[in-house]
Structure formats: C-alpha cells, structure tokens
Amino acid sequence: MKTISIHSSRGGTGKTVIATNLACVLANRGFNVALLDFDFRAPSLVIIFSKALNSPVKYWLNDFLNGRCKEVQVLIDISNFYNLKGKLQVGLANPSVEAINNLTQKSQAWETTAVKKLFSLLSSLNSDMGIDYCIFDTSPGVQYSSVNALASSDVCVIIMNSDLVDLTGTKNMLKDIFDILDKKTVIILNKFSPENRVVPNKESDFAFKIEEILKHPVISKIPCYCDVLQAQRMALLAIERPDHPFVRKLEEVADKIDKL
Amino acid sequence: MHIGMAVREKNITDQSAAMLAKIIEQLKLLNEKLDSLNKNNDKLLKKFDVLNEPSIKASLNPQADVMTLLTLPASLRKTAMALYRFRRATADEIAKTTGRLRAVESTSANQLVRMGFIKKKREGRIVYFSIEPKLEDEK
To answer: B61: which chain A residues are within 8 Å (Cβ-Cβ)?
Structure first.
C-alpha cells in the first residue's frame, strides 16, 4: 500500500479537488483506494460525495480517533455509485461545529494517541482491507491532524499556487516539517498561469527555478482551467469527463507518484 | 507603712510596664515573622501557578506527539516514530523498522525513556519499549 498526503501551506490551492480526482483516477485504474478527510477544521468530502452516500454516516474519522469505533467501521464504499473499475472507499470528517471544536482542542497526550491510532488504521487498511492507495486530504498549514497524516505517509504532495505568499509559506513549511520528517516530497504547481509566476524567467524554466528554491521536484504544472474553477471543489472530472486535460494531468501525476 | 506600700506598688507598676513593653516587642517580632511567612507563602503560590502553565506542565509530563518529536534530534525522532507502529516493541523490532543497528535503537530508546517520552518494561530477559500517553480530562 502506498500512502499519499495531499497538503499545502495555505487554503484554496486545490488540495481537495486534486485529492478527490486523483483517488478517482486510481480507482478507475482498478485499484482499491481509500480517501481520508483529514481536514477536521473544514471537512468537505462529506459534501462532495453526499450523493453517493446511501445512508447517514454511522462512524466518522473523528469517532475512530476518539476510540468510538474500529478501523473497519470507518470506511464507506462508494465505488458502485460511480461505477468505477476498482474500489473507492472514503473516511469522512464530521462537519458539525461540536465535532470540529472537539477535535481542534485536544491535548498533546490525545494527539499522541491519535497518531498511534492512525498507524493502526493504515496497518488495517493494508493488511485487512487490501487497500492499494491511501490518500489523505489534509488541512492546510501546520495543524496537528495534517502533521500526523504527513508523518504516517510514504509520499507527501504539496499543492502550490504560483504566488510569492504561497512560495514563502511552502519554503518555511518544508524546512520546519517535511525535511525534518524526511519524507519523499513532491510539488504540484496548480492553477498555473505564466502571468502569475513569481520567478522572472521563461515559463519553461519556472518549474526548474521552483525546484531550485524549494529543493524538491515539481512533478506537474496544472494550468488554471475555467471549468474546474467553476465547479469548485465539487468537480469530479475524473469520473464525469475522463478526457479533460485536468484529468490527463492527474493521470501523469499518478504515474509519477507510482514510481517514487 | 504607707510609704512602703507605695514603693511596692510603684515597683509592681514598673515591672508590669516592663513586661508589657517586652510583650509588645515580642508581638512586633511575631508580626514581622508572620509577614515574612506570608511573603514566602505568596512566593510558593506563584511557583505553583507557574507549574500550571502549559509549557511547564508539558516539560514535567513529556508527550511523544509528532509536533514534539519534530524538536528532537533526528536519531531519537526516528526511534520514537518507529514505535508509533507498535503497541510495544523490543530494540530489535524497532531496528527492523528503521533499518538501523539494534544497539543504536537500544541507546536511542533508553535515552527517550530517560527523557520521559516512552516507557520501558522488562519481562524476563526481554525489554519492551512503548509510547503510553496519559489522557486526562479528554471528552
């Protein structure tokens, strides 16, 4: 099993759209994929996949981390709804204000238990449920839940927009967290357009410059597509329009991640 | 007779005045000592307040959460992070996860035990290490 964290230094970079569509791309290749919503401050997968949920969610990831359910009870299989070649199972974060408050006010001792539970969940996904890929959609910046997900991942994918604020934030985050955790880390430049680049250079040299500054490989430059922006986070183009250039970019990303 | 009585009475009055002065002096000393005790008490209470501060509390009860591990030297962090995968593990089992020598893991794990991040338990000839966070007042 390969565990992938999708992360960014700030919000609105396109983490969730990339995480959900990458999960669909992999499931459509016939793999058994688990997609976990680790953005406990602003859960969104429950909304994106609401149509595919047959019944009210019985157990949230919050319940698992709080010790209220077992590993196998937290995943919901939504493959049939989307008619995927493989399997797509989701672990959802509870969007209620009470649940968000509860999980954002935990002690260090609880966070230590949470990371142990997370490792036990991944072990169960791997050996009991036959998951091929586990993808974390994380909360931006330095949050306990995100850092826990990063610590337990094989590959960390940073989604970055080409602006100076994001570049500086990403650089600091790489230094303070990713490099210390010593994880395989790659960068995707999302919503990329030549006009908003921060390095005054030719477009072809841009990714190279970013790699030079951040010292991690840029595995994809995904242009800013109007239809992806219009559909916002609800866009499941990998299912609805598999030939869309955005999806083709994610197919390339999947190939590159597979080789890491 | 009258004169003798008067002298005696005067002596008694003088003695009483002297005793009263002594009592007042002792009371003043007692007061000073009580003030000093009060000041010490305030200092102690302030120290207890300090003990309740989150940072001090954390240093007295170290936790092996990921954020804390980020502040540790790489060698210790690697051992602690490998331990997340186990309920409990021997130095040998940790070494198989990290790919380092058993002796390195044993040294590192024992250092983490001394720092209070992990626990150590001997069962016969086997030594187990574990991360056992103490959960208090969690909902």
So the answer is: 109
Dist CA A37 CA A236 (whole Å)? 16
d(CA A145, CA B97): 23
Per-residue pLDDT of chain B (139 residues; tens, 9 = 90+): 577 788 888 888 888 899 999 999 999 999 999 998 888 888 877 776 766 665 665 566 788 999 999 999 999 999 999 999 999 999 999 999 999 999 999 999 999 999 999 999 999 999 999 998 877 655 5
Report the relative pairing of strands A184-192 and A155-160 from DSSP bridges. parallel
Name the 3-class secondary structure at A54: coil
Angle at B95 (CA atoms; ends B91, B97), nearest 5 degrees:
120
- Both tokens of B91, joined, read 């130095």
Q: Which residue has the tokens 């009870």?
A: A73
Q: Rounded to 5 degrees, what are φ and ψ at B89?
A: -150, 150
Interval A152-174 mean pLDDT: 90
Q: Would you say A200 and A229 are in contact if contact means Cβ atoms under 8 Å apart?
A: no
Q: Which of A102, A151, A182 sits opposite B66 (nearest CB)?
A: A151
Q: Count of CB atoms within 10 A of residue B89's CB?
A: 22
User: How many other CB atoms sit within 10 Å of the CB of residue B22?
Assistant: 10
Is the overall model pTM greater than 0.90, yes or no? no
Concatenate the DSSP letters of all residues of B23-89 into one string: HHHHHHHHHHHHHHHHHHHHHHHHHHHHHHSHHHHHHHS----HHHHTTS-HHHHHHHHHHTT-SSB
Distance from CA of A68 to the nearest CA of B (A): 11
ipTM of the complex, rounded to two decimals = 0.81
Q: Do A109 and B138 touch (CB under 8 A)?
A: yes
